[in-house]
Automatic annotation (TrEMBL):
Record localization: Cell membrane
Pfam families referenced in this protein's UniProt entry, alphabetically: ABC_tran
Descriptive protein name: Thiol reductant ABC exporter subunit CydC
SMART domains associated with the record: AAA
SUPFAM superfamilies membership: ABC transporter transmembrane region (SSF90123), P-loop containing nucleoside triphosphate hydrolases (SSF52540)
GO molecular-function term, one example from the UniProt record: ABC-type transporter activity
Record GO biological process: cell redox homeostasis; glutathione transmembrane transport
TM region positions: 21-49, 55-77, 129-152, 158-178, 241-263, 269-293
Domain of life: Bacteria
Entry membrane topology: Multi-pass membrane protein
Domain (ABC transmembrane type-1) ranges: 24-301
One GO term describing the cellular component: plasma membrane
Length: 572
């Protein structure tokens, strides 16, 4: 049977469970605030109506104190409620973000970018769900029950009319508003996306558009999307205005109906006034439910996306996972990778053996599957067929049962994801430089490294002269924007060299360098790695005579493989 935890809301709200008493407290405070407002209206009306009969002041004193207490109390309650609800929801959202972050770390890099934006913007929906949807609904529900209960004391028929009015304004109309908002979001989302794409193209591509004279056409397209967006937004705004107006009118109608019923039941005049005003106030409260219902509908998409990420099982505890030991032996057997079911596999039936100390160069045209092969070795992806394993392994006492039969090796993706990169890492295709100093960018790879270590790594990567001239404290800009393409690449390479893993993976490490520089840098890096494993991905066949094996990939398949002799025979 499906429990509440299986729904989208449930999958998000399980994070509220440990904080349930805080949320209950915040809900009661919110209900108290609304009840104080309603009580204030009722008490003030009673006071005015009673005072009109000029009774002795003593008869009014309780009501006077009550009005003052409710007026002050409402403000205080609202303040405390905001503190309590935001405190609870921020604690909850912190948990959600931590879980999403963990899920992102475990994702293949290619799927992270979209997921990262989810973490930033969609998680706000979790906050809105609690603060702007559930709490106002809970508060309005509690107050409505209290109002109908109080009216029941005065007269059951009056309570019945009030209940009917509140059900229409507080339940039926919000359901209608939510439906309209859902429909509106479905129409607006693609228009907003198109408009955002136009804007990004216009800003980032400004120079190219100007160069090719395409700016007017792009601007016209952006304007057309903006006009269409405005037109749809206006139409939707008109509809939601109609719902708001209907709710306000129904609030008035309910008040009149309550009044008429109270009159026909012969209730005293003061009570007539109190009931009429309190009903109008309760109707206004129901209006807040319209906003909550709309918000609830708007954030459905975000909640779905958050829930999808939360479905990724929590990373198993580190001490239960195998950790790479001092002699990693990587092996691919019949490994295949398929990114999309409707496309050819990116890798097909690939064998690779990388015992400690071996150097393999992977060459092939663009799109041959070279980076995909490296992604298998880093454990960023697992093969869809065949295996990607490590032999032999030092297996820490395992609680998760991932150890393979003897001889078959342990799947690379089964290793402790925190510790695998210490053994197998390098300069990968998506290497990122942080908006920090050269030193900070390098220290990521080895936090305890001395300046001498950093300078040595820079020299190995061919960045020695530049660092001697600029120092380690110079900042590199966002993703290395303040460096040239070649400097950027060499800094990323220096970081990989500094990490000094057992198996160094290099994806086009000398891209952006001229051929002579590229050969010199590669030779230095290989000299530095003497006796240790390297997997180099490259387009160029030169400088490969230092490799034990060259694997030629084409269309995801191993087309040829050979040893140093092969390279010489092919003009390397
Ligand atoms: N994240 C992804 N999603 C879908 N398809 C992908 C993804 N990454 C790669 N591909 C596809 O898989 C194939 C192999 O890509 P891969 O990046 O491994 O090639 P490559 O040999 O490294 O190319 P290049 O030399 O241009 O970097 C290509 O057809 C590519 O379009």
């Amino acid at each position: 049977m499906k429990g509440w935890r299986d729904g989208v809301m449930g999958r998000v709200l399980v994070f509220a469970y440990p904080l349930r008493w805080r949320f209950v407290g915040a809900g009661l405070l919110a209900a108290g605030t609304e009840a104080a407002g309603l009580g204030l209206m009722a008490a003030a009306t009673w006071l005015l109506a009673t005072a009109a009969g000029q009774p002795p002041l003593i008869a009014l004193s309780v009501a006077i104190v009550l009005v003052r207490a409710l007026a002050i109390g409402r403000g205080v309650l609202r303040y405390v409620e905001r503190l309590a609800s935001h405190d609870a929801v921020l604690r909850m959202v912190t948990e959600v973000r931590a879980r999403i972050f963990a899920a992102l770390v475990d994702r293949p890099p290619a799927r992270r970018a979209d997921a990262l934006s989810r973490m930033v913007s969609d998680v706000d929906a979790v906050q809105d769900l609690v603060i702007r949807v559930l709490l106002p609904m809970a508060a309005a529900g509690l107050v409505a029950v209290a109002a109908v209960g109080t009216a029941l004391f005065a007269d059951p028929a009056v309570a019945g009319v009030l209940l009917a009015g509140l059900l229409i304004t507080g339940v039926a109309l919000p359901l209608l508003a939510a439906r309209l908002a859902r429909h509106g979001s479905a129409r607006l989302a693609p228009l907003r996306a198109a408009y955002a794409v136009d804007t990004v193209d216009l800003v980032h591509g400004a120079a190219d558009l100007a160069a090719f004279g395409a700016r007017p056409a792009y601007e016209a397209r952006g304007r057309a999307h903006a006009d269409e967006l405005a037109r749809v937004e206006r139409a939707l705004a008109r509809r939601s205005f109609a719902v708001d107006a209907a709710a306000t009118a129904l609030g008035g109608v309910t008040a009149m109906a309550v009044l008429a019923t109270a009159l026909s039941r012969g209730l005293p005049g003061v009570w007539l006034a109190v009931l009429a005003v309190a009903t109008i106030a309760a109707g206004e409260l129901a209006l807040s439910l319209l906003a909550a219902a709309r918000k609830g509908a708007e954030i459905q998409g975000s909640l779905h996306r958050v829930a999808e990420l939360l479905d990724v099982p929590e990373t198993a505890v580190a001490d239960g996972l195998p950790v790479p030991d001092g002699s990693v032996h990587l092996r691919l057997r019949g490994a295949g990778v398929r990114y999309r079911t409707d496309a050819a596999p990116a890798l097909h039936d690939v064998d690779l053996d990388l015992p400690p100390g071996r150097r393999i160069a992977v060459v092939g045209p663009s799109g041959a599957g070279k980076s995909t092969l490296l992604a298998l070795l880093t454990g960023a992806i697992s093969p869809d067929s065949g295996s990607a394993t490590s032999l032999p392994v030092a297996t820490a006492p395992s609680r998760v049962g991932v150890t393979a039969p003897p001889g078959a090796g342990t799947p690379i993706t089964a290793f402790d994801r925190e510790r695998w990169p210490a053994a197998v890492t390098g300069l990968l295709a998506d290497a990122h430089l942080f908006h920090a100093s050269v030193r900070d960018n390098l220290l990521l790879a080895r936090p305890g490294a001395t300046d001498e270590d950093l300078l040595a790594a820079c020299r190995t990567a061919g960045l020695g002269d530049w660092v001697d001239a600029h120092g380690l404290d110079v900042r590199v800009g966002e993703d290395g924007a303040e460096l040239s393409g070649g400097q950027r690449q060499r800094l990323a390479l220096a970081r990989a060299v500094l990490a000094d893993p057992q198996v160094l993976l290099l994806d086009e490490p000398t891209e952006g360098l001229d051929p002579a520089q590229a050969d010199a840098v590669l030779a230095d890096v290989l000299a530095h790695r003497a006796g240790r494993s390297v997997v180099l991905v490259t387009h160029r066949l030169t400088g490969l005579d230092a490799f034990d094996e060259v694997v030629v990939l084409d269309g995801g398949r191993v087309k040829e493989r050979g040893t140093q002799g092969w390279v010489r025979a092919h003009g390397g």
